[in-house]
Structure to design on (120 residues):
């Protein structure tokens, strides 16, 4: 029996919408959800201030600046230190005690700091 003309008109847009919705949900599920609180992160970052500075600008030339870095980058690096995938004599010890929530808060804090680049 042939398809009803009205049904076949709606079938393609609905199928396309379904595929788009499934694709979007897969992307959102794969994206890390770093819903940290920058206020909590600022308080937690007190232990970072000695090397990275109170506003994420390092006090020593061999220490990276954290101000303005994307939250997911901060979180990923802290996880790598904690899991031993990245090693540093100080950071490996510092990251060992951080929870996932701590890392999210720290990422939110450092990424919320506004930095400005000026040409020489």
């Amino acid at each position: 029996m042939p398809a009803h003309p009205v049904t076949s008109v709606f079938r393609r847009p609905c199928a396309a919408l379904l595929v788009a919705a499934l694709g979007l949900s897969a992307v959102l599920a794969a994206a890390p959800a770093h819903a940290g609180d920058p206020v909590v992160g600022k308080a937690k970052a007190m232990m970072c201030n000695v090397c990275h500075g109170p506003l994420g600008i390092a006090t020593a030339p061999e220490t990276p600046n954290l101000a303005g870095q994307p939250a997911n980058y901060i979180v990923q690096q802290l996880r790598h230190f904690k899991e031993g995938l990245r090693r540093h004599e100080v950071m490996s010890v510092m990251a060992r005690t951080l929870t996932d929530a701590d890392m999210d808060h720290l990422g939110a804090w450092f990424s919320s700091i506004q930095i400005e680049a000026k040409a020489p």
Residues 1-31 form one domain. Residues 4 and 111 are 55 Å apart (CA to CA). The two ends are 75 Å apart (CA to CA).
